[in-house]
Design a protein that fits this description.
This protein is of the alpha/beta class and 255 residues long. The chain is 33% helix and 20% strand. It has a single domain (9-65, 96-251), classed as Alpha-Beta Barrel (TIM Barrel), CATH 3.20.20. Strands 1, 2, 3, 6, 7, 8, 9, 12 and 13 form a nine-stranded mixed beta sheet that branches. A two-stranded antiparallel ribbon has the order 4-5.
Length: 255
């Protein structure tokens, strides 16, 4: 595990446990209720996703449409907040505004997947207005989107690599020359992708040599959690928050 802390967001004593969508296994992903459950279970780091509504409201929600997890329907980008606010996750809990989550859980740190381009400026404006630069790390599958966010915000914004950055880091670990941006503070990666192992000792060694933390998603089985912690990863994202807590408690690394 790397000891160099490149951004205050990463200031945590030991491997970081992330509650993925607050703990998606409970069926109420990305809701205030589920994030509260994670906080009460001892989680300080929460993972979420953001989309912008048609009128520019930033909501914590994974999918581009409401259809899969709510009793509503339609593309969030095409709907005003007045409509989205009536949708209920699992028919029970409202879709939250990200700003409300920041206010409701002032001690939490947020790993934010920037799902679509229209959410970029509203997110940066919100972080600026609330002064929460130290509490948020932005990631995205789109390397270009994260790069745009970094250029607009500068070093006060913590970012992780997008897909291209992760690929180039993997190539670097194999000794293949590949360009890497210096502004990222973490590589947030799957354990394996398309049958190719991503996280191994060589990958971790290469990332740590560049001062990068490695956070692995989405890990729900105890044996995989143990294996990754044995390797020396810097964080694990999970849907099963009770399972990860027990694994880390058993290892004496739960803080």
């Amino acid at each position: 595990m790397t000891s160099r802390i490149r951004h205050p967001y990463l200031d945590h004593p030991g491997p970081i446990p992330f509650a993925h969508r607050g703990g998606a296994a409970a069926g109420l992903e990305n809701t205030a209720l589920q994030f509260r459950r994670a906080i009460e279970a001892g989680y300080r780091y929460l993972e979420t996703d953001v989309h912008a509504t048609a009128d520019g409201k930033l909501v914590a929600f994974h999918d581009a449409t409401l259809d899969r997890v709510t009793d509503g329907a339609g593309r969030i980008a095409d709907l005003p907040w007045a409509d989205v606010r009536h949708a209920r996750v699992a028919g029970k809990e409202p879709v939250p505004l990200f700003e409300e989550l920041l206010e409701t859980f002032p001690e939490a740190r947020w790993n934010v997947d920037l799902k679509a381009e229209p959410a970029l400026h509203p997110l940066l404006e919100l972080i600026e207005r609330t002064g929460t630069w130290d509490r948020i790390c932005i990631g995205s599958f789109s390397e270009a989107r994260v790069v745009r966010a970094q250029r607009l915000a500068g070093p006060r914004l913590a970012t992780s690599y997008g897909t291209r950055g992760v690929l180039n880091l993997r190539l670097r670990s194999w000794g293949v020359p590949a360009a890497l941006r210096r502004s990222a503070v973490a590589a947030q990666v799957p354990e394996a992708q398309s049958g190719i192992q991503v996280v191994d000792r060589r990958f971790l060694r290469t990332a740590h040599a560049r001062g990068l933390q490695v956070h692995v998603w989405t890990i729900n089985e105890p044996d995989r959690m143990h294996r990754l912690l044995d390797l020396g990863v810097d964080g694990i994202m999970t849907d099963h928050i009770d399972t990860l807590r027990k694994v880390m408690e058993d290892r004496g690394v739960w803080v």
